[in-house]
Target: Beta-galactosidase
Amino acid sequence: MAAIHGPRWLRWPSEPARRRLAYGADYNPEQWPREVWEEDVLAMRQAGVNIVSLAIFSWARLQPSADRWDFGWLDQVMDLLHAHGIAVDLATATASPPPWLTAAHPEILPVGHDGRTLWPGARQHWRPTSPVFREHALRLVRAMAERYGSHPALAAWHVNNELGCHNVYDYSDDAATAFRVWLRERYGTVEELNRAWATSFWSQAYGDWAEILPPRLAASYPNPTQQLDFKRFSSDALKHYLRAEREVLTELTPDIPVTTNFMVMGDTKGMNFADWAREVDFVSNDHYLLDGERDELSFSANLTGRLANGDPWFLMEHSTSAVNWQPVNLAKQPGGMVRDSLTHVAYGADAVCFFQWRQSAGGAEKYHSAMVPHAGTDSEVFRSVVDLGATLEALAPIAGTRRRRAQAAIVFDWDSWWASELDSHPTSRLRYRQEALDWYTAFAAAGVRVDVIGSAGEFAHYDLLVAPILHVVPQALADRLTAYVGGGGHLVTTYFSGIVNEHDHVWLGGYPGALRELLGLRIEEFGPLRDGDRVHLDLGVSGTLWSDRIDVTDPDVKIVASYTSGDHTGRPAITTRLAGAGSASYVSTRLGPDGLGPVLAELLAVSGVRPELPEAVAGAVELAVRTGDDADYWFLINRTDESVAVDGVTGEVLRAPCLAEGLTLGPREVCVLRRPH
Amino acid sequence: MAAIHGPRWLRWPSEPARRRLAYGADYNPEQWPREVWEEDVLAMRQAGVNIVSLAIFSWARLQPSADRWDFGWLDQVMDLLHAHGIAVDLATATASPPPWLTAAHPEILPVGHDGRTLWPGARQHWRPTSPVFREHALRLVRAMAERYGSHPALAAWHVNNELGCHNVYDYSDDAATAFRVWLRERYGTVEELNRAWATSFWSQAYGDWAEILPPRLAASYPNPTQQLDFKRFSSDALKHYLRAEREVLTELTPDIPVTTNFMVMGDTKGMNFADWAREVDFVSNDHYLLDGERDELSFSANLTGRLANGDPWFLMEHSTSAVNWQPVNLAKQPGGMVRDSLTHVAYGADAVCFFQWRQSAGGAEKYHSAMVPHAGTDSEVFRSVVDLGATLEALAPIAGTRRRRAQAAIVFDWDSWWASELDSHPTSRLRYRQEALDWYTAFAAAGVRVDVIGSAGEFAHYDLLVAPILHVVPQALADRLTAYVGGGGHLVTTYFSGIVNEHDHVWLGGYPGALRELLGLRIEEFGPLRDGDRVHLDLGVSGTLWSDRIDVTDPDVKIVASYTSGDHTGRPAITTRLAGAGSASYVSTRLGPDGLGPVLAELLAVSGVRPELPEAVAGAVELAVRTGDDADYWFLINRTDESVAVDGVTGEVLRAPCLAEGLTLGPREVCVLRRPH
Amino acid sequence: MAAIHGPRWLRWPSEPARRRLAYGADYNPEQWPREVWEEDVLAMRQAGVNIVSLAIFSWARLQPSADRWDFGWLDQVMDLLHAHGIAVDLATATASPPPWLTAAHPEILPVGHDGRTLWPGARQHWRPTSPVFREHALRLVRAMAERYGSHPALAAWHVNNELGCHNVYDYSDDAATAFRVWLRERYGTVEELNRAWATSFWSQAYGDWAEILPPRLAASYPNPTQQLDFKRFSSDALKHYLRAEREVLTELTPDIPVTTNFMVMGDTKGMNFADWAREVDFVSNDHYLLDGERDELSFSANLTGRLANGDPWFLMEHSTSAVNWQPVNLAKQPGGMVRDSLTHVAYGADAVCFFQWRQSAGGAEKYHSAMVPHAGTDSEVFRSVVDLGATLEALAPIAGTRRRRAQAAIVFDWDSWWASELDSHPTSRLRYRQEALDWYTAFAAAGVRVDVIGSAGEFAHYDLLVAPILHVVPQALADRLTAYVGGGGHLVTTYFSGIVNEHDHVWLGGYPGALRELLGLRIEEFGPLRDGDRVHLDLGVSGTLWSDRIDVTDPDVKIVASYTSGDHTGRPAITTRLAGAGSASYVSTRLGPDGLGPVLAELLAVSGVRPELPEAVAGAVELAVRTGDDADYWFLINRTDESVAVDGVTGEVLRAPCLAEGLTLGPREVCVLRRPH
Model:
C-alpha cells in the first residue's frame, strides 16, 4: 500500500492492493426501512461506489439511552456493505448528541457571545470544552472502536463530523475555564498575558487567571488580542477534542487510519486547518460550490492538497447538484458535477464522495441533492453519478500520485485572516480570503499554475510568492521572507501587510513595519477608500478599498505603477525592490482579478514564472498536474461555459469524454492526459 | 333574528329586530375624564354608531389588585351607552395582564426562541399555555359574565383581543410542557413522533416525551417537522385558550354569542383562522390597509367571508385614516375610508367598526387614527365618519344577506403557507401569500369574481380552482383534488406544489409527488431562479423566482406555454392535462399579476368561467355580490384612482354616492345595486 | 485668573497667570515603558503641549486588587510632567472598572433591554445606578484627591470619562430600583404617574411603585411616556453619578475645578448635556469629525459653546487624523486637523486636545490617530501637531475671551429629539438632529452667523429664532415662545412641532396644538411622505419626508410658499403670521440645506438679520466671533476645498497662515483677525 499512497491512507479491505480512487457518499441507512438497504447496495455497485461514510449521525440510534446500546442494525449494514465490496469510513458517531444526553446534561450546550444558549433541535449542540460531553462521547468512541475495529469493511475512522461547523465559538463557563488553561500555557504568567494583550489600556490589567473571560458581548470593542487569542483557542479546543477521539482510536485500532472532514471552503473561517492537518492520518475535506464561484472551488482544493503536503487527500463531501442552505439553491448545470469532482482530483483528491447517498424524504437536509435523488435512480442525476463512477475507474492509475508543485504560490495565513478582519480597523470592508482568491483567479486567467500554501510552507520551493494582506508578521516570519528574497525569491505583498506581530501589536516606525526594509518603502497613514471610490493607475487598471501614500526609502525600488487619480496622484501604487536575484513587490490597492492581470504579467516576467499551456487557451483552460513514478497527469479543466479547442498539448488521453472530440473541451469539461516522464 | 342573520349574530338589545348593519368602534372611555363620555355618546349618535367594543384593555382598571374589583365605572359606561341605544360588544378584558399580575407572577411572561423574556410595558405579555395566566384570566371572564351577562346593552362577548398578535410563538417551559401534551395527542407514541419528525437524521431520536422541546435557538436549522408542528401547536394553543374563555361564557350566558377578532391580513401568519372559525359564534376580523395594497384588503375580506361560511361577519377593527405601525403612515385619500369599509361589506361584513372611537392623547397608539381625531369633531375625518354612518343605514337591507359564491376559487392553505416558507429550502425568496394574492389581482384585473377559500372548503362548488403553491398535500387532499378533476373540475396549481405530506416528508419518485399523476408530468430537480433572473414564455410574459424543467408523462397533457429563454428554453412552462370534462394545469414559474393575465384568460376559457361585468370596466371595477331572499346586491368597487363610467349594469341604486352621477364611479367610489331575483 | 477667564477655569500651576490656550492630549503612559516617557515630555515641549489628561483608564493599574494600591508610577509621571511645565487634567480614573472588581461583583455589569449582560473585555461596563460600583469608584476618587489634590501639576479634575458613551441605557434591577426613586420624585404618587403615562390604555395602570420597570424588551411598543421618562432618567442617573464624584472632589480640593468630557456630536443622543452643563466648573467636550460632515463639527462646537454660556470651554478630545470606529476611517486631508481645531476655538474653546498623545501599538484603539503616530515624530502628522502648537501660541490673546452672540439662533432641545424619534409615529424616517443641522448649513451657506442654543436659553437675545421640529412643547415653553413673538421676535418652526406636552400627550384640537394660535394655522392629519416621494413649492424648491395640509386660521398669516405638486397642491407650504413687530413662521416639509436657502432669505429679510461678511464669500467662508475687553476676534473659516479670496474684511491678522497670502484662504484654511472695539 505504501507504494501507492503516502504513509497512511485507507485500509482497503480484503482484496489485493490496487490503484483506485475512492468513490461514494455519506450513507444514512437509519433514514430508510430495511428493504431499501438492499436497493442501496445494488445501486451503489451500479454506480461504482466503493466506500461510504457511515454512522455520522447515529449516536441516538446506537445508544438510545445512557445505558442502552443498539449495534445490531449497524452490524447488519456493515456486513451488507462488506458483502458487496464496499468499504466503510466509519464515523465515531459523536457529531450530534442525542436528546437524552442534552436533557440530562444541559450544561453541554454551547452559549453564544451574548449568553444565549444554543438548544438541541438541530445538530452539533455541544461545547468543545465540555468535560461531560467529552466523557460521554469518548465512551461512544471506545464502544465503536471495540465493536468495529476489526470489521473487514472498516477502511478508516471518521472522527465526529465537520468539527466546528456550528459550535466553534462557545462562550460558556466551560469555555472560560479551558481558555484560561490555554492562555496559561501560552503566556506562563498573567504579567506576560497583560503585556501581550496590551491591557494597560482601558483598565484591563488582570490580576489573576480566574478573572479572564472569553470576549463576551461587551459595552464596546473587546480587546483585539483577546479576540485573536480566543479565535486561536477555539480552533485549538476543537483540535484537542479531535486529538482526544484520535487517541482512543489509535490505542484500540492502531492500524486503522484516522481522519476527519475539514471544511476548507468559502467563509469557513474559525478552524485553522493548516494547523489541524498534522492531527490526521490523511486529510479530508468537505466542499460545496458557492453559486458562481468555480474558482473558489479550485482554490479550496488547491489549498487542501497543499495542507496534505502534496499527498492524496479525501474529498469527503460535496454535492451532486443543489444544496439547501444558500439563499437560492441552483441545480448544477450539465457537466458541473463532474467538473467539480475532477477539479478536486486534479488537486490531489484520491476520493470523491458526496453528501449523501440517498436524498432524505424528511429532516433538515431533505432539499440537499444526493447521489440518488428524490426522483430515484431513473434520473439525470443518478445517470451522471454512474458516469462519474466509470470515469473514476478509468482514472485509477492516478491513485497515489502526488501533486506536482507549481513555480508560484499564494500564501494563505489563518492568523492574518483572523486579525485583518477584526473590528475597529481602518476599514471594515476588507476581506482577506477574497483578496487571495482574486490573485488566484488572476493566475488562472493568465494560464499559470499556482499553489495555495499555508504560511508555514516552504517558501524556497517557489520562484514567486504572493502573500496578499499578510497582516500578521511575527519576527520569525519576517526573517523567513527576508531570507526568501535574499535567496533569489520574488515576493509580492499588498496593502495592510506586515502591520502587526503575533500579539496584534503594531510594528512601529511606519508601515508596513515588519516588511518596511524588505520592501524599501514607508507609509505613514493607512489609506482606506470610501465605498464606491476608485483610484486609477497608469497601468490602465483601477483600485478600490485602499490606496496607500507610499514613500520610497530604498534606491533599488522600481515604480511598477503610479496613481493617476485620487489623493495620491503621481505617487507610486505598485513597487518592486530589486534585491540581488530576488525582489520584493508591494501592491497598495485592491485591483480585483481583472486589474491584477497586467500587474501579474509584470511579476511573472520579473520572477521568470511561465505558463505551461499554449497562450491561446490561457484563461479558458486551467491546468493542474499530478505526478507519479513514471508519468505526469495533466488535468485540463475548461473554466468556461463555452467549448475550447486545445492545440499543442500532447499526451495519452485517460479520461473518456475527451476521446470523442479530440482535444476540444466542451463547456465545463475536463480532460486528463498521461504524459510519461 | 335568525331570519335576518345566520344561526348566531349580535343580540341587538331592547328593540324590535330589524335589518341593520352594525357600526362603531373600540371604545376606551378609561382614557378620558367622565365629562368626555357625554360628548362621546352624543357624537356617536350623530355618526350613527350603534355598537362599541368595550373593556378590551380594562383589566388593570377592573381589577386593580388581585383581590380588589372596580366595576362601577364600567357599569356607568354600559348604562350610558344603553341609554343612547348603543349596543356593546363586551370584551372579557383579558387581553393584557395588569402590572400587579406580572409582578407577582413573572412566570406568565412569554419567552422568545432565544430565551429572551418579553417583559410588561406594552401589551399581550402572556404565555398562551400558562396555567397561572389562565387561572387569573378565567376568573376575570367569570366576573365579567356574572356582572354583565344580563345587561341589556350586551350584544356579544369579545374574547380577549387579537389573540396571538404578539404572543403566538412562546418557547417557555410552559410551552414545552403543553407542546408535549399536544404531540402526545397527535402521535400517541414517541416512536410515531420519531417517524413523523424523521429524527433518525442528525441523531435526534427521542426516547421520552420529556426530552422534546420547542424549536428554540439552535446551532443549525431545527428539525422542519418540529418547526411545522410547533406552528400548528402554537395556533392550537391560542385556539384552546379561546375555547377556555368561551366555555365560561357559554356556561354563564348561553344566549350571548361569542366572538373574537381574527387578523386575516397581510403577513399575519401564526394563527390558522380557517381552523379557528369553528370556535366562534360569528367570525370577526381586524384589517388594516397596507400602503398601496388595496387588493390585499379585498383578498382578506373575501377569505374572511369564506371562513365565515358565507354568513355575515363582523369587521371589528380597521382605521379611518393612518395607522402608526408602518414605517411611514399615510392618511387615507378622500373616499379611501368608505371604499375600505364597503369592500368589507361587499364580502359579507355586517358590521363596520374601527379602532378606535376617540384618538388617544397619550400611549402607544396615539398616532393611530380614530373616528374622532385629535382635531375633534370639526374635522374631515369625523365628517366622513358621519357620512359613512348614513351610508350604512342606507344599506340596511343588505344586513343578513349572504355572500354569493363565485364560479372560481383560490385555495388558501395555512399548512402550505407555513411549510413552504420554512428554512433550508430551494429558495428563501418564495412568498406563499403573495403568490395567492397575485392570482387574486389577476382575477380582479380580468373582471372575474373569485372566492378565496380554505383548503377544507368544498371544491365541487367551483368550476375553476386555483391552488397556488399547494405545498403540503396529504394523501386525503390529493384524493380530494383528484376527485374534483374527475368530477369535471378545473384545477390549477403552481411550482413547489404537491411536494410534501402532512409531516413535511417529500413524496418520492419525482415532483410534484402527490400531484404527479393528476398533472401528468414529472420534475427531477427544483428550479429556483437567482434574484434578478427572469425567464420568458412564448405567451409573451415572463417569470421570476422559479422555473421547472418539466417532463410530460401523460399523452393528454397540452402545452399551454413554453419557455423561450433560460435553462429550459423550448420546454413546457405551463401545462394542462385534460381529464374527461375536467382538467389539471400547472404553472411552473412566478408570473406576477400582470403575467398571469394571458394565462388566466386561457384557464377561464377552458373552465367556462365568465366575467359578469361588461368588458369595458374589467379591471377597473371589482364586483362582489351578496344575496338575500328576494334580491342580489351588487357592489361595484372602483379599484382605481380615476373615474370610471359603468354602462350596461342595471339595478336599483342603494348607495347614495352613485345617485349624483348615475353609474359613473368616482375615484375609489363604491356603488351598490339591488337586483331582484 | 478670573480676569482672563470666567469664574472657573484651569488652575495653571506655578507660573504667573498669562493668557494662553491649552494644548495637549490624553496621555496614557501606562502603555509604554519608562524610557518612552522621557521622549514623550521632550516631544510635548517641542509641540507646545501644555496640558495632558492623565489616568483616564488607570484604575486597574492604580488599584491592582481591592486592597492594594500602586500610585508610585503616577507620582513619577505627575512629577515628570510638572518638571517640564506641563499641567495635568487628572482623571478620577473611574471610567472602566478593573477585572478584579467585575469578577468579584458581576452585579455591577450593565444589562441590555433584552436582558443580555454587557460583559467586561472592553470598557465602561458598569451600571450608572449600581451602589456597589459607586462605593468602589468613590473610594478611588477619594484616594486620587487625597494623593494628588495638592500636586502642583494639577490643573483640573476630569470626572470619569465620556460618561454614558456605552452604558447610558441600563435595564438592570439596579436601574429599575433607581428609576422608581426618580419617578417618585417626579410624580409624587402612583396615580399621577398613571395619568402622565396614560396607563389607562393597554391595561398598564400601576398599583404600586414596585411594579414599575424600565422599558425592557416587550411584546409590542412599550409605553411612550415610560420610554421618554426612561431616557430622562438615564441621563439623570449619569448626571447624579457625576455629581457624586464631584462632591467628593469639591469636599477635598475645593480650589481645583471639576469637569468631565461631554460628547456633543453626531448621534450621541442619550445624555442631555444642556442639563449637565450646570454640573461642571467648565464645560469640556469630545468631538470627532464624521466623514464629510464639517458643518456638523461647527454645529457641535457652536452648541457646546452656548451650553457653556459663552464662556470658554475645553475641547478634551478630537483626532489628529483618522478614527477607528467608522465603517471606513479616512485620514484627514492636509489642513483638516488645523481647521477642525480652530473651528472649535472659534466657537469658544480655550483648549485643543486630542485623543491621544502617542498612538497605541496594541489594544482596541490602536488604529485611532494620535499626536505621535505609529510612524513616530518623523511624520507629517507630528509636524502638523508642532505647527498647530505654534498657531495656538500665536492665538494666546484670544484666551479668556467670550463668544459674541449672533443675531439668530437655532434651538436644540433634547426632549424633542428624544420624543420625536420614538417608535409608532407618523414616520420612522424623521431625524431631529439632521433637520437642525440642515438649518445650520443653510445659515452657513447664506453667510449669516447663527448660535445653536438649548431650549432653556434666553430667546430675547435673538432677532430670529429657528426651532426645527420643536416637538415637545409644555405650556411654559409655549408661553415663552408667545412672549418672544409678542416682544418683536421672529420665530420659525417646522412640521411635527408643538405636538405634545411634557408627558408626550398630544395637544388636542388640531395640530400643532401648542403653537396653533401663535402660528395662526391648523392641521388635521399628519402628512408623512413615502420614501422617494417629493413635493414641489412655488419657491422653486422641493421637500421630502413630510407635507402638511395647512388650514390658515388667522387673517394675519401670509403665505410664503405654496405646494405645486403632491396631495396639497395649491395649498400653503410655508406661512408667516405677522404679530406686531414679531412674527411666527411655519415650514411644513423637509427642504434640506439647499431648499432652505430661499426660505431663509425671506426669513432673514423679515427679521432684519444681516450677514457680516461680504456677499462674495457667503457660503465659502464661515465667520465666528469672539470678543474680549478691547477687541473682537474674527475667525474666517474656509468651508470649502478651494481657495477663496476675501476682500473687504479688515483687521490685524493674528494667525500666521494667512499672512503669507494676505486674505486669500487656501482650502480648509482659517484666518483670525483682531478687530479692536
